[in-house]
Write a structure and sequence with these properties.
By secondary structure, the protein is mainly alpha-helical. It has a single domain, classed as Rossmann fold (3-Layer(aba) Sandwich), CATH 3.40.50.2000. The protein has a three-stranded parallel sheet with strand order 1-2-3, with helices on both faces. The longest helix is centred in the C-terminal third of the chain and has 16 residues.
Length: 114
């Protein structure tokens, strides 16, 4: 699937669900955040790098189905989906070129690793 289609799908989605038990630092989580999605993720390698964005739509849960379902509900009912926040997130995604977003992700990841 072309990256432009992936970006379009993410920009029109509310939440990315990543329930892998073994995946390390998944770039798909960063891509989802960059495209305005909340992320519900199991606690696999690399999720500690997201500590600074826990208040910005990143929900970490264990692999219990009940906890995953609860986090999915919370992500959909969160303040990130008020009309004003949706418009802000769409404007941010629309006005940033992929190269700018990639640069910001590199900076974020670099500062998180230190």
């Amino acid at each position: 699937m072309p990256i432009s289609k992936v970006q379009e799908l993410m920009q029109n989605s509310k939440t990315l669900i990543s329930t892998s038990r073994f995946e390390g630092m998944a770039l798909v989580r960063l891509e989802a955040l960059a495209n305005g999605c909340c992320v519900v993720s199991t606690n696999t390698g690399g999720t500690g790098l997201f500590d600074s964005v826990r208040d910005h739509g990143f929900f970490v849960v264990d692999t219990d189905a009940k906890n995953i379902a609860k986090a999915m509900y919370e992500s959909l009912e969160s303040r990130y989906w008020t009309d004003e926040n949706i418009q802000i997130r769409k404007a941010i995604v629309k006005h940033f070129q992929p190269s700018v977003i990639a640069s910001q992700l590199i900076d974020f990841t670099s500062s998180s690793v230190k």
